[in-house]
Design a protein that fits this description.
Blueprint: E1 2-6, E2 12-16, H1 27-40, H2 62-76, H3 82-85, H4 91-107
Antiparallel strand pairs: 1-2
Helix pairs in contact: 1-2, 1-4
Organism: Vitis rotundifolia (Muscadine grape)
Keywords: Chloroplast, Fatty acid biosynthesis, Fatty acid metabolism, Lipid biosynthesis, Lipid metabolism, Phosphopantetheine, Phosphoprotein, Plastid, Transit peptide
Subcellular location: Plastid, Chloroplast
Length: 108
Amino acid sequence: MVTVGWTKSGFPSLRTSRFRVSCSAKPETVQKVCEIVKKQLALPAESELTPESKFAALGADSLDTVEIVMSLEEEFGISVEEESSQNITTVQEAADLIEKLVQKKSEA
């Protein structure tokens, strides 16, 4: 939801509530990320992971996150820059980044 108001100076002010731009990854990519995260964190098979699952909430520390990213790179044949990998905190963020990198790789 976006609301536009006018300030005293006559310029519009823009307020957003939970405004998010997302390029949702394919369900199979999200599923593969979930499998890799479960394996890396040695989670029980019955663990429920969703696209919103945060690595930290699953018990991952920074080293675990690096290992997850390395496994994703190997699985999908991509290379994630360190800068980008530090922004990955959820399954969805990982899946979206993978799709973006796979697409960029196929265009090259």
